Amino acid sequence: MTTERARSFGAAADDYDRLRPAPAAEALRWLVPPESRVLDLAAGTGLVTRALAAEGVHDVVAVEPDDAMRAVLTARSPGVRALSGTAEEIPLPDGSVDVVLAASAWHWFDAERAATEIARVLRPGGVLGLMWSYSDPDTDWVADLRRIGRAEAQGSASLVRSGLSLEMPAGAPFAEGESRVFQRSAWVAAQDVAAMLGTYSSVLTLPAAERRDVHRRARAFLTERVGTDPVLVPFVTGAFRTVRS
Ligand SMILES: C[S@@+](CC[C@H](N)C(=O)[O-])C[C@H]1O[C@@H](n2cnc3c(N)ncnc32)[C@H](O)[C@@H]1O
Hints:
The protein has helices at residues 3-6, 13-19, 25-31, 47-54, 67-76, 111-121, 140-148, 157-161, 190-197, 201-204, 208-226; strands at 38-41, 60-63, 81-83, 97-103, 122-135, 178-188, 231-243. With 245 residues, it is α/β, with parallel strands linked by helices. The radius of gyration is 18 Å and the shape is globular. Keywords: Methyltransferase, Transferase. Residues 39-128 form the Methyltransferase type domain.
């Protein structure tokens, strides 16, 4: 996993925020017990932070290394404490949160260092919840669309293919985890479905002319293959939960 790809998202922070799917509310309910102090790790533009607020979870601190992503979070969630930091160096005291959430991000972390650092800031018995929210690649047209952006090769693809059967690094103080998949659909303007492809690291790291070409081909594909505008997009949130011992 290259650092270039892990840090590519800030260049499209506004598009990312507007176009990427928020996590399913059911996934948040499964991961976050009531009255929890939550760390939204690799919070990006705050999609998870805002989804938590919509569920009545307000005791949230966000940690995100990219200044452009964090600026969108702060603008859209002005009351939330948002800190510069990484999963490998979390700027919080020991045992200070009940839940750590990391959405569409675990695959970018140095898993061993992140697991140690997450265990440090989580209180014993606290929950680590990992999520990935995406348009469902089990739907043929979605899989074909993602191929246009080489987004089937994005960092989380192998995890998704394995059914999110994640294992924490050996020796990390976490119980055996469990996974669930939450599905929903939403109508999305065809131009936004095409533009969403441009928020994946596989496209963000291409030269500008190639990014434009991906968008043009995605738009044409949607017209020919799907034929409606808006498009009914199937979304999935894959969630993994483990408890700190
Ligand atoms: C795909 S985005 C996900 C953002 C947000 N969690 C969401 O669901 O929309 C991945 C985020 O991870 C951040 N990131 C990359 N490497 C990281 C690391 N080592 N520690 C913490 N965050 C990292 C990136 O800056 C980016 O904002």
